């Protein structure tokens, strides 16, 4: 083999490695976006309360702590002694009134009771109608996540098609993208099944 042929062969190998790396980057980027869609979905699911007492229910509450809006978890201990009750124990007794006010202002449908030591919240039992509404809400969130996942697939496939890779290589990477998409769609469905069960369990 002449030196010219050797150089040519090296160039071809180098080009193939570059092309592989470019394709892998497209696939990895798509998977990263799908993961973000799933993480966002999980966060939204936490906000759909299933009627069982959970400290997360108060995660959006901000308390006026010496003039600064502060997450309630940074000024008090929140516990769930049973499935129907939340107990909020402030680290400073003087914060009791502020915490009570913040829970009411957050408009979560809770009626906090201040016993002078801590704040007790009785979680109302969900009606069947409300449960059905929450399942619908969860379903809508899952559909939004699936749209994001499929959009990531579409964007990745467009990038693959627009690349200079051979048709065979393009097809292989499109299959990879589809497999990853299927995995994330399946995870989104699993998330919904778990949430639905949680909502409907009385």
Q: If strands are numbered along the chain, what order do they take across the biggest sheet?
A: 3-4-6-5
What's the β-strand tally? 6
Q: Tell me the radius of gyration.
A: 26 Å
Q: Work out the strand percent.
A: 5-15%
The helix content is 55-70%
Give the helix tally: 4
Unreliable stretches = none
**Sequence of secondary-structure elements:** HEEEEHEEHH
Tell me the overall shape.
elongated
Topology:
Blueprint: H1 3-47, E1 62-65, E2 68-71, E3 76-82, E4 85-90, H2 96-105, E5 113-114, E6 119-122, H3 128-161, H4 167-200
Antiparallel strand pairs: 1-2, 3-4, 4-6, 5-6
Describe this structure in words.
The relative contact order is 0.15. The protein has 202 residues and is an alpha+beta fold. Strand 1 (62-65) and strand 2 form a beta hairpin. The strands form two sheets. Strands 3-4-6-5 form a four-stranded antiparallel β-sheet, with helices on one face. Helix content is 61%, strand content 13%. The protein has helices at 3-47, 96-105, 128-161, 167-200; strands at 62-65, 68-71, 76-82, 85-90, 113-114, 119-122. The mean pLDDT is 89. The protein is built from four helices and six strands, in the order H-E-E-E-E-H-E-E-H-H. Helix 1 packs parallel to helix 4 (167-200) and helix 3 (128-161) packs antiparallel against helix 4 (167-200).
